[in-house]
Amino acid sequence: MKKSIKSLKRLWTYISPYKVKFWLAVLFTVGSVGLNVLLPYVTGLPTTEILKNVLKGEGINFPYIMKTIIAILAITVFYSAAQYFSVVMMTKVVQGAMKDLRRDIAEKINRLPVSYFDTHQQGEVLSRVTNDVDALSNALQQSFIAIVTAILGIVMAVTMMFVLNIQMALMSILMIPASLFISRFIVSKSQKYFQGQQNALGDLNGYVTEHMTGFNVLKLYGREKETLEGFKEVSHRLSRYGFKSAFISGLMMPLVQLTSYLAYIAIAITGSFFIIAGSLTIGNLQAFIQYIWQVNQPMGQITQLAAVLQSASASTTRIFEILDEKEERLNDVDQPLPEVIEGHVVFDHVAFSYDPAKPLIKDLSFEVKPGQTVAIVGPTGAGKTTLINLLMRFYDVNSGAIKVDGIDTQRMNRSDVREIFGMVLQDAWLYHDTIGENIRFGKLDATDYEVVDAAKTANVHHFIKTMPKGYEMEIDEEASNVSLGQKQLLTIARAVISDPKILILDEATSSVDTRLEALIQKAMTRVMKGRTSFVIAHRLSTIRDADLILVMNQGEIIEQGTHDSLLADGGFYEQLYNSQFNEEADYE
Question: Which residues form the signal peptide (predicted)?
């Protein structure tokens, strides 16, 4: 509960830039509530006047009644206008605040470290950005004015009750603490289910996103049934939390109304005695009954909005959880880059582990001279990709140092470190835009000539020209309208256009056929010329010409040398190399 209250208080930092409109909305709300509370008293005046005329045997005082009717109409018009302007102002405040909140979340996601996304499902993160922000926006949009109106309405209506009759007012206000007790009790029981509901919704989004992206694989292996069962389990969990939260919060309305009906009965009986005694007019009793309704209606609104508010509270907590995550500071130090990057890389007694209890890299040391091509090979889990993550400062070393041109990368800004590198990943990533813009992603101010030149260097120009609309062809959201090999070539073109000082190829040829592999190798030979290059490859035949081959196993370099020298040593590399050809022979 304390965490939810703290999160709700933090919302003011997003509302405060719009505080003028916010207070105008509150002012119009106060005005509308005041006019609404005045209305029952004014509508009771004609009733009292007519009864008085009848009892005295006089004619009906139509001039007085017409004045009161005009007053009622005026109050109604001003009430509607005030209510309209309060809604307009509040809408502008909420939409502005939510725009700022979404902007901060988007900026925060860009500052989160890679380790955060390694431990959180994409769909779950997406749920916080979309579903949780929407739940909060809807609650503020629909509920804030309603809550303020309800509280002010109750206070003003109770005040008018005391003005009309103190004894009946004291009887009536007993329903307020009774209603508050019921509401608080039910909220305390239902809040955990609303929190569980939002978490389950995030899990459901994560599950659907994950399995939709791998839909073809699911179909291939016939895992539809298992996937459906997994979906049912997550969906049923969401359903259970949703039912419990809705059912428990739904009990508030009938229980609160029960207290109101009891108050109606008590006031009707008591008021009749006061009228007979002459201490209360019938018009005032009529107004008093309406004031009970004006207290009952806001209490009912509060109970109806309880579910929305609890959902928003849970969403707010989840939103600020991601905003409070530890950030990856890109500009964490001020060591400048050398004017000219030579590409001299040294790993000096580097140690690293994802889990302190399970050391991965213990004491890794090697040197790469400028312009050299270094191949990193080894079995799965040897630490090859981890080495690249450390080089790019996606993770920081536990001890030791990684130096570029003699400068410890931990003394350099992360953004400067990554500016040095160009990277082609095993999983080619393209986004929904034209082919030309996907290549230009590596250098946003690149000209069309540079885009075409990079495509030619990457041997993808011919493929692009055969596509519908060529460089203007739209890549769909899943990039399924181009082949895996073409995607890989496009990402290589993207790396080429960025003109990196150091190049990293992480299984760059793993997704292509033999012909495309030859094209990529030819392109990469041109791209790597004069650049320090790191190549991770399972196909050992592609790294024969590497200046240095590092053989890794269990986080350590167990062998290093050239292709010929490692084969001559007859060690682990020779076994890897020969086993690969034996597998190919067995396959044939």
Answer: none
Q: 396 and 522, same structural domain?
A: yes
Could you give the CA distance from residue 307 to residue 297 in angstroms, rounded to a whole number? 17
Rounding to the nearest 10 degrees, give the CA dihedral for residues 124, 128, 132, 133. -150
Q: Is residue 349 part of a domain?
A: yes
The H-assigned helical ranges of 410-550 are: 414-420, 435-440, 448-457, 461-466, 484-497, 514-528
Beta bridge partners of 375: 535, 549
Residues 396 and 448 both lie in one domain: yes
The domain in which residue 451 lies consists of 345-587
Q: What is the CATH number of the domain that holds 569?
A: 3.40.50.300
Q: Are 565 and 419 within one domain? A: yes
Residue 338 within a domain: no
Copy the structure tokens of residue 219.
Answer: 């179909």
Q: At what angle do helices 282-323 and 19-56 cross, to 10 degrees?
A: 160
User: Is the separation of the CB atoms in 492 and 460 below 8 Å?
Assistant: yes
Q: Which residues are within 8 A (CB) of 393 and not within 5 positions of it... i.e. 6 or more apart?
A: 409, 410, 414, 417, 418
- 465-517 pLDDT tens trace: 888 888 888 887 666 777 777 777 888 888 888 888 888 887 656 555 666 66
Dump pLDDT digits (tens) for 6-40: 766 788 888 888 889 888 988 988 888 888 878 77
**Position of tokens 């140690």?**
351
Asked if residue 353 and residue 319 are part of one domain, the reply reads no
Sign of CA dihedral 565, 567, 568, 569: positive
